[in-house]
Amino acid sequence: MRPLLIDYSDGGQASNCRIRSLDSWRQILVSRAAVAMSSSYLPATTDSISLALEAKDPSERISILYQILENPSSSPEALRIKEQSITNLSDLLRQGNRAEDLYGHLTHMRPFFALIPKAKTAKIVRGIIDSAARIPGTSDPQIAFKEMVEWTRAEKRTFLRQRVEARLTALLMENKEY
């Protein structure tokens, strides 16, 4: 037996609701994704993430994940989905050796970081910085690190600033740039 979902999209009243199967929701999401390629965001749901992971082309996956992140919703479920999207997007960008895009991703995500706890922000930022540092031939990460340090000072995120500075120091020592 397939699970059924209730669609209240026609006004939220019981007289306007429709019962849909999970497959019909997936079809709706696929059609919305096609439309969303021209619009600004996709709904922050697990179906949207699965749609991104099912895409064959990495650039299409990246595009879908960015559209999930553009969703203005700030419900706890949406924030959790956005965190998953950030992790998946970081992995895709690292696999594609796109360090500059990872650093740009950090800058782009700053409004989102204001919505989640500081500890979670620190975990995400450290993960992205570590992912970018693992990319061979990363060109001059110092600029991005310095920009992150300035942002952490402005946002009064002392612990994160110290971690970013420590990571920058470790990278400089590894490259013997004293």
Automatic annotation (TrEMBL):
UniProt name for this protein:
26S proteasome regulatory subunit Rpn6 N-terminal domain-containing protein
What organism does the record attribute this protein to?
Hevea brasiliensis (Para rubber tree)
The record, for Pfam families, names:
RPN6_N (PF18055)
Under Gene3D superfamilies, the record lists: 1.25.40.570
Residue intervals of the 26S proteasome regulatory subunit Rpn6 N-terminal domain: 53-163
InterPro entries linked: 26S_Proteasome/COP9_Components (IPR050871), Rpn6_N (IPR040773)
Task: Give the source's domain of life in one word.
Answer: Eukaryota
Q: Which residues form the signal peptide?
A: none
